[in-house]
Design a protein that fits this description.
This protein has about 725 residues and is α/β, with parallel strands linked by helices. It folds into four domains: about 190 residues, Rossmann fold (3-Layer(aba) Sandwich), CATH 3.40.50.2000; about 160 residues, Glycogen Phosphorylase B (Rossmann fold, 3-Layer(aba) Sandwich), CATH 3.40.50.2000; about 130 residues, ATPase, nucleotide binding domain (Nucleotidyltransferase, domain 5); about 170 residues, ATPase, nucleotide binding domain (Nucleotidyltransferase, domain 5, 2-Layer Sandwich), CATH 3.30.420. The protein contains 25 helices and 26 strands. The chain has a seven-stranded parallel sheet, with helices on both faces. It has a six-stranded parallel sheet with strand order 10-9-8-11-12-13, covered by helices on one side. A five-stranded mixed sheet has the order 16-15-14-17-21, sandwiched between helices. The chain is elongated, with a radius of gyration of 32 Å. About 45% of the residues are buried.
């Protein structure tokens, strides 16, 4: 051990001699706000711990020095760092102009500071407008710049600022392999890029085992338990301030309705931040018994709060980066973090334009526990950065060079993509069979299990759990990572709660059944539930003819008649979750009785049950069988026999099928006149027998403005299972949003 320590010292000595007569590297670290300090502090501690190699100068500016944001420079002093210079650079204001003026003020003040300090290198973090002023000043004054967290992708103006700083910086410390590849693609010198991971992860990955209950009690309240509170942190989106203020209002309304203890942090200094604070005060957040509104929480304590929260909500980069280290559920709102790499714990609410959307996301995420993610670091960033700093040769030319040759291909891959295929557990509850399948992101059914559907609630739920657990275990063997469980079932379903409200007569003891809770508790996975017709429409939207179509309708023609409606790319559920009960569109006032109790429904004419009823009537009158047909004595008459008889020339059977096709066609015409879709997809075993009849009725009965609609037969082999899978695959997060 002594030998290796001496060897290390000798190598470091050689580097120092290379830099000229034992010259210590003079490092200026400039911090602008609480967020960047959480990333810079571990590096500052590392630099301070090696005074034989480095001299540290700390410059504080930006929101650190503003009382409205907690005077966070004090935490730098509490960490025992000497602050060399304090620069008041924030121009008060509520619009974009104030940000520009703040950059200008910083550019005016910084040259004098840098002339006095004469640093060898300046460390700049991230993508804030203050950081752009720092990088611009240093570059124009021929000071080397080390940029932390370059190459990442996100929304708003921050993206442009981050990439602008990259072009000014001489050295780059990035956190992920993708960020490294982006830097190379931006023509940065590969030799000057360090893939180190995020410095804050050096603290994060050792933080969760510390005492945390006292911190939770101090910030949330005495009677709060772990995983039973929410942390909210939302900032203005400077490229669309008005929308981001509205989204913040909806977020607060959803949090008030959700009725859980919530810690709300004040937003960053950005155009629109004052308006967000006014929204908080207008809604009485600071005096609401469920809320604590604070300007700042020290990073060490903030770590503990998010590590043990039931959920974090907002649009802060902390949610999509640091919180993944603990597997805490996160709801990322809007576009501010678009493009960020995220772990499985993040649920993106792309258009958070209604309170219900945000509330639904809270119901899905709150209290879950996801696998911990190390996308952004492994806890060893600081040693790598210090080693990188020591390797900098100050004798090298200051002028940076850009590498314009083609980007090098990166052969390394994320371990998840090497070993596992992201997949869903799909459950289809039919009138006869209960099926569970492992379905990949591409719609491939990797493995399928089938059992008879039990007649009682207890037996059915027990079998679902048993089959799901078996499939989840088998998923490991077939290299699939299960992201969640999607369930397709007959009847009326409340997808927000995961409850079957009323079942069809084909599935007994299946009303007011909570499917989400027992399955989620048993498998520790998120669970989605929806009606089988809606699932068929979702399957078409993701894997079938409906892919990329804005408005279309799917009709299932099987034992019953069902369907789903997609309008403006979204599935319609209706105010009482009864939308798209297409089988019960009435096409005749005195038609046959339907299972729903009404008369003349499409289902009473065109369903498998209806065709079987007519086939039995013909058989009883000895009018079904024709030459070329035969039936065993014990064989049950079915719709298939009616179709076979019609094909073999049975005029009565053919007439029944034509009537059924006409009834279905009239129903489709009603849908066209109501929804005006551009596509109608017929799915199920009877679809191919009805498609021509439906087209004929449209040509005869529909208004000329809707006759151009496309009517096609689904090409999906298993729409129920694929639709159940798409419930999961469409709503669980991707790594790239």
């Amino acid at each position: 051990e002594v030998y290796f320590k001496n060897l290390s010292k000798q190598k470091q000595k050689e580097v120092m001699e290379k830099n000229g007569n034992h010259h210590k590297l003079r490092v200026c670290v400039a911090t602008c706000n609480r967020a960047d300090y959480s990333k810079l502090a571990p590096i500052m501690f590392g630099i301070k711990a090696e005074p034989q190699f480095f001299e540290l100068d700390v410059v504080v500016l930006g929101s650190h020095l503003i009382d409205d944001y907690g005077n966070t420079y004090r935490m730098i002093e509490q960490d025992d760092f000497d602050i060399h210079t304090r620069l008041h650079t924030i121009v008060r204001g509520e619009d974009e102009a104030a940000m520009v003026e703040s950059v200008g003020l910083a550019l005016v003040k910084l040259p004098d500071v840098l002339n006095r300090l004469k640093p060898d290198i300046m460390i700049v973090h991230g993508d804030r407008f203050d950081a752009l002023a720092l990088a611009t000043s240093a570059a124009l004054m021929n000071i080397r710049i080390l940029h932390i967290e370059g190459g990442e992708v996100s929304g708003t103006i921050d993206d442009s600022i981050r990439h602008a700083i990259t072009k000014l910086a001489h050295y780059h410390v990035c956190c992920t392999r993708s960020a490294e590849q982006h830097l190379i693609a931006m023509c940065e010198d590969h030799d000057r890029i360090l893939l180190a991971g995020c410095p804050s992860y050096d603290k994060l990955l050792s933080a969760k085992n510390k005492d945390y209950m006292s911190i939770i009690r101090m910030w949330i309240g005495e009677d709060v338990k772990t995983r039973d509170y929410i942390v909210a942190l939302q900032h203005p989106v400077t490229t669309d301030i008005k929308h981001s203020i509205k989204m913040f209002e909806l977020t607060l309304d959803a949090l008030i309705s959700f009725n859980k203890r919530t810690l709300v942090l004040f937003p960053n200094v950005d155009a629109g931040d004052k308006e967000m604070v006014r929204v908080m005060r207008k809604k009485g957040i600071e005096h609401h018994p469920n809320f604590r509104a604070v300007k700042h929480v020290p990073f060490d304590q903030f770590i503990q709060l998010v590590a043990h929260a039931g959920c974090m909500i907002g649009n802060s980069s902390c949610g999509v980066r640091e919180v993944g280290a603990f597997g805490t559920p996160v709801i990322n709102l809007g576009t501010r973090q678009t493009g960020r790499e995220t772990g499985e714990n993040v649920l993106h609410v792309r258009d958070a334009d209604t309170q219900d959307k945000i509330l639904h996301a809270l119901q899905l995420q709150f209290g879950k526990q996801y696998p911990c993610s190390k996308i952004y670091g492994d806890g060893n960033a600081v040693p790598r950065i210090l080693k990188f700093l020591k390797s900098i040769d100050l004798k090298e030319p200051l002028q940076k060079k850009f590498c314009f040759p083609p980007v090098k291909d990166n052969i390394s891959q994320d371990i998840d993509h090497i070993l596992e295929t992201q997949s869903a557990l799909a459950v289809d509850l039919g009138g006869t069979n209960l099926r569970v399948a492992i379905v990949s992101m591409k719609g491939e059914i990797v493995k399928k299990y089938t059992q008879l559907n039990p007649k009682t609630y207890e037996d059915r739920l027990e079998l679902i759990l048993k089959m799901c657990i078996e499939a989840a275990s088998e998923a490991v063997n077939v290299n699939c990572r299960i992201l969640g469980v999607g369930i397709s079932t007959g009847g009326r379903v409340n997808p927000r709660e995961g409850i079957v409200l009323h079942s069809t007569k084909l599935i007994q003891e299946w009303s007011s059944v909570d499917l989400r809770t027992p399955i989620s508790d048993a498998l520790h996975l998120p669970v989605w539930v929806d009606n089988d017709g809606n699932c068929a429409a979702l399957a078409e939207r993701k894997f079938g003819h409906g892919k990329g179509i804005e408005n279309f309708v799917t009709l299932i023609t099987g034992t019953g008649i069902g369907g789903g409606i997609v309008h403006q790319h979204e599935l319609i559920h209706g105010s009482s979750f009864c939308a798209a009960e297409l089988g019960h569109i009435v096409v005749s006032l005195d038609g046959p009785e339907c299972l729903c109790g009404s008369q003349g429904c499409i289902e009473a004419y065109a369903s498998g049950i209806a065709l079987q009823r007519e086939a039995k009537k013909l058989h009883d009158e000895d009018l079904l069988l024709v030459e070329g047909m035969s039936m065993k004595k014990e064989e049950v008459v079915s719709a298939a026999h009616l179709i076979q008889a019609a094909k073999l020339g049975n005029a009565k059977a053919d007439s029944i099928l034509k009537t059924a096709g006409t009834a279905l066609g009239l129903g489709v015409v009603n849908i066209l006149h109501t929804m005006n879709p551009s596509l109608v997809i017929l799915s199920g075993v009877l679809a191919s027998h009805y498609v021509n009849a439906v087209k004929d009725v449209i040509n005869r009965q529909a208004l000329s403005s809707v006759k151009t609609v496309d009517v096609v037969v689904s090409n999906l082999a298993d729409p129920a299972l694929l639709g159940a899978a798409s419930l999961v695959l469409d709503y669980t997060t991707r790594r790239i949003y």
